[in-house]
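We modelled the chain as a single entity of 131 amino acids. Its sequence is:
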Amino acid sequence: MKTIDVLHRDNEKDAIRLEGTGIRRRLFEQRPKKVVIQDLYYGMYNKVAVVKEDDLDLAFELTNHIYDDWWENPSVTKIGDDNYRSTSVGDLMVVCSTGVDIPKEVFEENPDCIEYYECFQVKEFGFEKIW
């Protein structure tokens, strides 16, 4: 199963660092709510939602206020009680793969891998893979 974590640019100071490879091993119990990307260019991000879809375009659409608040969409789980803005250029989408969705080559190199992450930044047209 794949899910997409949606992260909005944020200036808060209390963030958890998500180290680089995108591979989560069995010893970790919970995914962070807030993520700091190591490259300072990307700054700090706040996890605002989990989308139960595997398509970035659809996740982007589902986390935008179109006809109603985006957190009213059934595929979206909002994190926290804040009323967040729509996802926009510069925000991040982290695709989380588990089980059979983990790429074969990743699992062969890391047999203890239980989750695999790919991070994309929202651009004016489409998405750019960060890691």
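As a brief sanity check on the tokenised model: Confidence is low (pLDDT under 50) at residues 13-21, 23-43. The two ends are 20 Å apart (CA to CA).
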